[in-house]
Automatic annotation (TrEMBL):
GO terms for molecular function: carbohydrate binding; hydrolase activity, hydrolyzing O-glycosyl compounds. It holds the Pfam family CBM_5_12. Residues 1-33 form the signal peptide. The lineage of its organism: Bacteria, Bacillati, Actinomycetota, Actinomycetes, Glycomycetales. It comes from Stackebrandtia endophytica. This is Chitin-binding protein. One of its GO terms (cellular component) is extracellular region. Residues 225-270 form the Chitin-binding type-3 domain. Keywords: Hydrolase, Signal.
Length: 273
C-alpha cells in the first residue's frame, strides 16, 4: 500500500533519526584492540596452539586478555592477573603444578620481545614485570610475587603494526622458573592487555669470571643451533641455523625460511656461525 505524503515525511524523519543515533553510538565506541605476546611465548598462545589443553575459550581468542590498565596500582585482582581479571580465561591463572612450557632465556641477556595484534590500536606503552626470587610457582600470580617495578618499559606513540617487536635486557640474578607479565596499555581506552609467559633462566646472571685456557678450535662453519626445517614449528625465542648463519624466531612460525623474511619478518639474524 502506497504511503500518503504526510506518512512518507514521518517515515523519512524516523529513518533519519535512527541513522543519526546509530552513527553517534558507533562514533562514541572505541575501536577494538587485541593482541598477545609471541616471544617469550605466552600462556594464551600455548593454549591457542594446542600445546596446552583444557584452556577453555581462550584457546579460540588468545588476543582477548583485556582488563583495566594502571597495573600494579590498578588492573586485575591478585590471582587473576594472567587472565586480565576475566573469569572465562581463569585457566591462564592456573599454575598447573609449575608445568607450563617455558622459554629458555639468560639472566642479564638481550632478548627480543614480540607481539601479534589482531586489531592494532593507539598505544601508550609496553611494560614487562617479572617474578621475585623465591616466588612460589604452585600458586596463581599476585602482586606480592612480582618485582614492584617493570624491568623493561617501552613508550610508544601511535599504532603498532600487526607484528611488532622490541629488544630488552632481562635482569641479573635470576635462576630457574620465573613468569614474565607483559602489559600493553592502549592509549585511548581505560584498558590494557595482559600476557603471562613462563621462562627458564639457564644461566645465573652473575658477572663472568676470568677466562680459562682456550680450547681446540672447532671446524669452521659449524653451527651450534639445530638446523631449520620447513616442517617444524618454532615458538618465539627459538634459535635455529640455516645456510651458515643462526636466527632467532620473534614469534611462532612454521615454513618461513630464515634469511628470506626481511628485517620486519619473523626471523632475527644472529650472524654467521
Amino acid at each position: 500500500m502506497a504511503l500518503t505524503k504526510p506518512a512518507r515525511v514521518v517515515f523519512s524523519l524516523m529513518v533519519g533519526g535512527i541513522t543519526a543515533v546509530l552513527l553517534a553510538v558507533a562514533g562514541a565506541m572505541p575501536a577494538s584492540a587485541h593482541g598477545y605476546t609471541t616471544s617469550p611465548t605466552s600462556r594464551q598462545l600455548y593454549c591457542s596452539q594446542g600445546v596446552v589443553t583444557d584452556c577453555g575459550p581462550i584457546q579460540y581468542e588468545p588476543q582477548s586478555v583485556e582488563g583495566p590498565k594502571g597495573f600494579p596500582q590498578a588492573g586485575p585482582a591478585d590471582g587473576q592477573i594472567c587472565a586480565g581479571g576475566n573469569g572465562a580465561f581463569a585457566p591462564l591463572d592456573n599454575p598447573r603444578g609449575g608445568n607450563w612450557p617455558k622459554t629458555s632465556v639468560t639472566a642479564g641477556g638481550q632478548f627480543t620481545f614480540g607481539w601479534t595484534f589482531t586489531a592494532p590500536h593507539r598505544t601508550s606503552s609496553f611494560e614487562y614485570f617479572i617474578t621475585k626470587n623465591g616466588w612460589n610457582p604452585l600458586n596463581p600470580i599476585t602482586r606480592a610475587d612480582l618485582e614492584p617495578a617493570p624491568f623493561l618499559t617501552v613508550p610508544f606513540s601511535g599504532q603498532p603494526p600487526f607484528q611488532y617487536s622490541h629488544s630488552g635486557t632481562f635482569p641479573q640474578g635470576k635462576t630457574g622458573h620465573h613468569v614474565v607479565l607483559a602489559v600493553w596499555s592502549v592509549a585511548d581506552t581505560s584498558n590494557a592487555f595482559y600476557a603471562c609467559s613462563d621462562v627458564d633462566f639457564s644461566g645465573n646472571g652473575e658477572e663472568p669470571g676470568e677466562p680459562g685456557e682456550p680450547g681446540e678450535p672447532g671446524e669452521p662453519g659449524e653451527c651450534a643451533a639445530s638446523a631449520w626445517t620447513a616442517s617444524s614449528a618454532y615458538n618465539g625465542g627459538a634459535v635455529v641455523s640455516h645456510n651458515g648463519a643462526e636466527y632467532r624466531a620473534k614469534w611462532w612460525t612454521q615454513g618461513e625460511e630464515p634469511g628470506s623474511t626481511g628485517d620486519w619478518g619473523v626471523w632475527e639474524s644472529l650472524g654467521s656461525c
